[in-house]
Amino acid sequence: MPAIVLVGTQWGDEGKGKVTDLLGERMQYTVRYQGGNNAGHTVVTPDGEKYALHLVPTGMLTPGCVPVIGNGVVIDPKVLLHELDGLSARGVDVSLLKISADAHLIMPHHRALDRVVERYLGSARIGTTGRGIGPTYADKVGRMGIRAQDLLDPKIFRQKLELALREKNQVLVKVYNRKKIDIDAVVEEYMGYAERLIPYIDDTRLLLDKALTRGEYVLLEGAQATLLDVDHGTYPFVTSSNPTTGGACVGAGIPPTRIDRVIGVIKAYTTRVGAGPFPTELFDDNGKHLLKVGGEYGTTTGRERRCGWFDAVIGRYAVRVNGITDLFLTKLDVLSALEKVPVCVGYEIDGERFDEMPMTQTALHHATPLYEFHEGWSEDISAVRRFEDLPKNAQAYVERLEELCGTRISVIGVGPARDQNVIRHDMLEA
Ligand code: IMP
C-alpha cells in the first residue's frame, strides 16, 4: 500500500518540486489533493528543462506517470487549459491526466469576490493570490459550488450557476458596487472549456484505490503548507483548504490506512508571502540577504517573500500535525557565508517560555524568538553529495535541526538543480 504524502512544513515555497524531482520516476501516480492555481511548483526535468506548474501535478512531467487532480482541488478551467496547452507546446504528453468529477470549479464570481473582499478588508486583508480560491471553497462548504461533473450536463450546469448568481450578483452589485455577472456569457465560456476537459474527467478515487491495491506507488502532493492550513495554520492568514496530511486523505479519497510515508519539505530558513504572524521575520540586511541569495520571489504572483531564520517550533509542530517520517531540508546552500546561523528554538510570550506552538493566535502575534547561534561555514557546498563532505559546521546545523524537529532529515538540498542533493536515507524506506 505505498501511498506517500508530500507536505510543506512552513508557509509554502519550501521547494516541494525538489522532492518530486527525486521521487517522480518511482511513482506511478501523482495526485494534487487541495488548493488550486494559487500554488506554484518549479520543476527541472532530467534534460534540464524548467517548468513552473500551478495546477497540474508534477507527475505530468514524468513519462508514464499518471497525474491526477483530486476532488479536494479547485480548478479554474481556463488556467488549467492554458497550462496544458503550454506543456503540450513544449512536447509534454498531457493525455494521461485525470480530473476528479467531484473537484470544484472556480467561477468568474469567485475571482471577482476574492479581489473585492480583499480590497474591502483594507489593512486587515489576508494577502490572497486573488485567484478565487477562498470564495470557491466557501461555496463548496456552503453547498453552492459547481463541480467538474457539472460540465457533463449543460442543463444542470446552468441551473446551478443561476442559483449561485442569484445571490452573488446581489452581493457584487449591492454590497461591493461592482458589475453583475452575465450568466449567458459564463455558460458559453464554460461549455467551451467542457468540450476540452470532459475526456479527462474520471472517478479518481476508484482509480487510485485500484492502483494501490495493485501495489503501485501513489504520491499525494500537497500545495501550500502546514501553517497555511485552514484548520492548523495561522488562521485567518491561511489558505482555504487542508494541505496537512489529513487533507490528503479527504482530497484524494483514499483512507489513512493506505499511507506509508509522510515527507515534509522544510527550508533551512523560513519564508512567507501574504500577511500574518511570522515570529522569526527579519527586517534587516540579513532578511535582504536571504531574499536575494535564496531568490525568494513568488512563482505564482512574483511577490517578494518575507524572510526569516529557521523556526524549530514550527518544525516540531509540522512533524506532529502531519506525522512526518522524513524531512527534506532544502536550500542549505543559501546559508553559506554567514558568520553565525541563528535557529529559533522556542518563543518568549509575555515573559513565559514556549517550546511548542502557542494555543492562541494572539500569543503567536506576541512571540519573541529565542535563538541559538550556530557557527557558520564559508565553503561553497553546492557540489557536495555526501553528508560527510559537508563542512563540519553545516553538518552540526543539520543534526541540530533534526534533533529539534524530532525526526530524521533524509535529504538535504544544496542547489536548485535536480541532482544537487545530499541523500542520507531512502525516504520510501522506514
Ligand atoms: P489564497 O490561497 O489565494 O486564498 O491566499 C491565502 C494565503 O495563502 C495568502 O497569504 C497567500 O499568499 C498564501 N498562499 C497561497 N498559496 C500559496 C503558495 O503556493 N505559497 C505560499 N503562499 C501561498
From TrEMBL:
Key words, A-Z: Cytoplasm, GTP-binding, Ligase, Magnesium, Metal-binding, Nucleotide-binding, Purine biosynthesis
One Pfam family of this chain: Adenylsucc_synt
E.C. code: 6.3.4.4
Transmembrane segments: none
Top EC class of this enzyme: ligase
Co-factor remark: Binds 1 Mg(2+) ion per subunit.
One Gene Ontology term from the biological process aspect of the record: 'de novo' AMP biosynthetic process
Highest rank taxon of the organism: Bacteria
Location of the active site: D13, H41, K140
SUPFAM superfamilies linked to this entry: P-loop containing nucleoside triphosphate hydrolases
Record InterPro entries: Adenylosuccin_syn_GTP-bd, Adenylosuccin_syn_Lys_AS, Adenylosuccinate_synth_dom1, Adenylosuccinate_synth_dom2, Adenylosuccinate_synth_dom3, Adenylosuccinate_synthetase, P-loop_NTPase
Catalyzed reactions per annotation: IMP + L-aspartate + GTP = N(6)-(1,2-dicarboxyethyl)-AMP + GDP + phosphate + 2 H(+)
Entry GO CC: cytoplasm
Alphabetized NCBIfam families for the sequence: PRK01117.1, purA
Subunit relationships: Homodimer.
Family the UniProt entry places it in: Belongs to the adenylosuccinate synthetase family.
Stated name of the protein: Adenylosuccinate synthetase
Organism: Actinorhabdospora filicis
